[in-house]
Amino acid sequence: MDIDRITLDPAVMGGKPCIRGLRVTVGTVLGLMAEGVSRERILSAHHYLEPEDLDAALAYAAWRLEEREEDLTAA
């Protein structure tokens, strides 16, 4: 997966990871996917996004989770 589509710019959305410098955060895309919104609906609602952007958001999230070890069983 190509995560080069994910940008971090302090001047855009407070430095949150965004899709290609657009004002759409990785968190927004992942949140929609987690709610069960279809890829087609996301792409339709955000016409400037491309299918590869959704793949990049997922790849970026997976990479970030692997970056540090966390005990997910702790309450």
UniProtKB/TrEMBL annotation:
Pfam families tied to this protein: DUF433
Taxonomic source organism: Thiocapsa roseopersicina
UniProt-listed PANTHER family: SSL5025 PROTEIN, SSR2962 PROTEIN
InterPro entries: DUF433 (IPR007367), Homeodomain-like_sf (IPR009057), WH-like_DNA-bd_sf (IPR036388)
Domain of life, per lineage: Bacteria
The protein's name in its UniProt record: Uncharacterized conserved protein, DUF433 family
